[in-house]
Automatic annotation (TrEMBL):
Coiled coil: none annotated. The keyword DNA-binding applies. The keyword Transcription applies. One of its GO terms (molecular function) is DNA-binding transcription factor activity. GO terms for biological process: negative regulation of DNA-templated transcription. It comes from Listeria welshimeri serovar 6b (strain ATCC 35897 / DSM 20650 / CCUG 15529 / CIP 8149 / NCTC 11857 / SLCC 5334 / V8). SMART domains: HTH_GNTR, UTRA. This is Transcriptional regulator, GntR family. It holds the Pfam family UTRA. Residues 6-74 form the HTH gntR-type domain.
Length: 243
């Protein structure tokens, strides 16, 4: 195996990432000027700008005219946690219902919920706002017969899982999630107040209860430069599929 030293740009990039982690831990979003960073890191202006450009493309930092460099503090979500998103996210949150109603069956949803294709569903569409800014667009489906009357419950600023647990005795136990990138279409552009074709995370979630029965199918759309996903798993072999 051939060994090569890290390039100056990569070295300065790693030092910048370490500095950013320290700033975030201290609750700071401001960042030193390029001149100060050049002196502190001991690198050339060209090398520093190359490293900063890399971090800006990853949406780790933002360069603002007349304001200098700012850290983009992303919200962190553990992809394997079986709890509501509200409990994982800090900040001042508003969860507003855009639509909640009984709809015709959706093939992929009904198949997962083990329902007849024409079985009606309860569809909940909500927008999550954090610190005054749109954060996610969320669409959830459950069996309208199993959870009769759920369409009449006010689901603004409340956890759907809490409602299912308190009103219907459902204990969310485990789930499966599929994560991919998509581009914002016109509907998502309007809901999230972002430019058309902005990169988004699309998270398809399939949740199971204490009796291993599927109970919820959902899709969440999250602005890509506002979050980071992590996997923090214990007893990793428990996540293997059954034979």
């Amino acid at each position: 195996m051939e060994y090569k030293d890290l390039s100056p740009a990569v070295q300065s990039e790693e030092l910048l990432r370490q500095l950013i982690e320290e700033k975030i831990a201290e609750g700071e979003t401001g960042f030193p000027s390029e001149r100060m960073l050049e002196t502190e890191l001991g690198v050339s202006r060209t090398t520093l700008r190359r490293s900063l450009d890399t971090l800006e493309k990853e949406a780790v930092i933002q360069k603002r005219s007349r304001k200098g460099i700012e850290i983009n503090q992303k919200q962190t979500i553990n992809i394997l946690k079986m709890n509501s998103m509200s409990s994982q996210l800090p900040g001042d949150q508003v969860v507003e219902v855009l639509s909640q109603k009984i709809v015709d069956g959706v093939e992929e949803v009904n198949q997962f919920l083990e329902l007849a294709i024409n079985r009606p569903l309860f569809k909940l569409v909500r927008r999550r706002i954090i610190d005054g800014k749109p954060f996610s667009y969320e669409v959830s489906y459950v069996d309208s017969a199993r959870f009769a009357g759920i369409e009449n419950i006010d689901l603004n600023n409340t956890s759907l899982y809490s409602v299912l647990e308190d009103e219907f005795g459902i204990n969310p136990t485990y789930g499966r999630e599929e994560l991919r990138f998509v581009s914002a279409n016109e509907k998502l552009t309007e809901a999230l107040k972002i430019p058309l074709n902005t990169p988004l995370f699309e998270v398809v979630s399939k949740a199971f209860d204490q009796n291993d029965e599927p109970f919820e199918y959902s899709k969440q759309y999250l602005i890509g430069n506002q979050i980071k996903y992590k996997i923090n798993a214990k007893n990793i072999f428990d996540y293997l599929e059954d034979e």
